[in-house]
């Protein structure tokens, strides 16, 4: 145990002396997560709107007055539908409204009318969110008596704050990527610096060396998770946590060994840091895409849904979201802990055995 602690301290000191690596880790667990939370917006915000109004005003102006910030920019008037279409083509506006000459007349005569909407769907999520807002506004002017009253209750995230989800998902993805790269780096740097043979001559059990080097990187990742949770999630975004923070840290600790196991495999097949980066990205990107970080699992193709079961990041994300937003009891979190533990154990043992063949 004393030898292992000495090896762990040696790796931590070596990490702290590498100012560039320390800067990358600090940036990734702070500014990168903050940028992802602030910069990736799924809701309709500041949508540029243009309109052509041949109806003479009145009803059309009442509708346009409902389009205001933060969802919409002040509507811009165009003299013709061609000018409106050109503005959409040139990405000057996202939503175009066309009020024809009979728009108000039909509404006054029958209670029904037609509004033509042009939509730039390149940014599909925001454009259809904007369309949903418009439909809700227009329903206020509809005289149709619906037999059903809709009562919507938003659960877990009442204001639909995108930054909460994006910041948390980015933190979990970053901890995965850095866990792989840092674990691989401590071994590959020995190869690049020409000290691999010297390490082999050390009068220490090779298994102890592998365990100490990988465990030191787990501690670094856990320090980054604690910093990101306190400064970015709680401090910058005021993300609520309805469960136990200690259970989340325990889940993160178990998952860090999963990333370390993948890192051991990457270190075994790589000779330079450039190869580490390429192999790590080659492995991690499918795991991230299959994890539900960007697309809900139920929205994927059935085959991809089955493949997502082998992504340990899926269990980590679902477990973390359940702790933060749903406040799930510890006894109900066992599927996520089981998934992370089993996959983490298999990956770590495989990586441990793979790099152990080089000793």
From TrEMBL:
Would you indicate the residue range of the signal peptide? none
Which residue ranges does UniProt annotate as crossing the membrane?
12-36, 164-188, 208-237, 243-269, 276-297, 333-352
Q: Look up the domain of life of the source.
A: Bacteria
Could you tell me which InterPro entries the record lists for this protein? ABC-2_transporter_component, ABC2_TM, ABC2_TM_bact-type, ABC_2_transport
Keyword flag Membrane: yes
How is it placed in the membrane, per its record?
Multi-pass membrane protein
List keywords of the entry alphabetically. Answer: Cell membrane, Membrane, Transmembrane, Transmembrane helix, Transport
Looking at the record, the residues that make up the ABC transmembrane type-2 domain are 131-358
Is-annotated flag, keyword Ligase? Answer: no
Where does this protein reside within or beyond the cell? Cell membrane
Q: Name one GO molecular function term.
A: ABC-type transporter activity
Name the GO cellular-component terms. ATP-binding cassette (ABC) transporter complex
Spell out the family assignment given in the record's similarity comment.
Belongs to the ABC-2 integral membrane protein family.
| Name the record gives this protein | Transport permease protein
What is the taxonomic lineage of the source species? Answer: Bacteria, Pseudomonadati, Campylobacterota, Epsilonproteobacteria, Campylobacterales
């Amino acid at each position: 145990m004393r030898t292992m602690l000495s090896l762990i301290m040696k790796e931590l000191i070596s990490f702290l002396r590498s100012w560039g690596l320390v800067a990358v880790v600090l940036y990734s667990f702070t500014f990168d997560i903050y940028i992802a939370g602030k910069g990736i917006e799924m809701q309709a915000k500041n949508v540029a709107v243009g309109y052509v109004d041949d109806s003479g005003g009145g009803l059309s102006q009442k509708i346009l007055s409902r389009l205001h910030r933060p969802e919409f920019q002040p509507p811009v008037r165009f003299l013709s539908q061609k000018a409106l279409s050109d503005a959409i083509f040139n990405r000057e506006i996202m939503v175009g409204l066309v009020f024809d000459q009979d728009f108000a007349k039909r509404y006054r005569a029958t209670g029904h009318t037609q509004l033509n909407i042009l939509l730039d769907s390149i940014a599909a999520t925001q454009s259809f969110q904007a369309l949903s807002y418009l439909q809700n506004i227009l329903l206020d002017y509809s005289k149709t008596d619906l037999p059903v009253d809709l009562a919507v209750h938003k659960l877990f995230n009442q204001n639909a704050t995108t930054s909460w989800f994006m910041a948390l998902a980015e933190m979990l993805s970053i901890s995965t990527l850095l866990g792989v790269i840092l674990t691989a780096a401590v071994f590959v740097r020995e190869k690049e610096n020409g000290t691999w043979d010297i390490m082999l001559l050390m009068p220490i059990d090779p298994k102890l060396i592998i365990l100490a080097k990988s465990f030191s990187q787990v501690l670094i990742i856990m320090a980054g998770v604690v910093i990101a949770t306190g400064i970015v999630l709680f401090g910058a975004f005021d993300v609520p946590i309805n469960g136990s923070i200690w259970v989340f840290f325990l889940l993160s600790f178990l998952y860090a060994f999963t990333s370390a196991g993948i890192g051991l495999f990457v270190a075994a097949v790589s000779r330079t840091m450039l190869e580490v980066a390429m192999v790590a990205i080659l492995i991690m990107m499918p795991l991230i895409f299959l994890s539900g970080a960007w697309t809900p699992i139920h929205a994927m193709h059935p085959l991809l849904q089955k493949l997502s079961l082998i992504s340990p990041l899926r269990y980590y994300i679902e477990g973390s979201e359940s702790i933060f937003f749903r406040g799930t009891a510890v006894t109900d979190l066992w599927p996520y802990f089981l998934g992370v533990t089993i996959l983490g154990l298999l990956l770590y043992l495989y990586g441990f055995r793979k790099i152990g063949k080089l000793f």
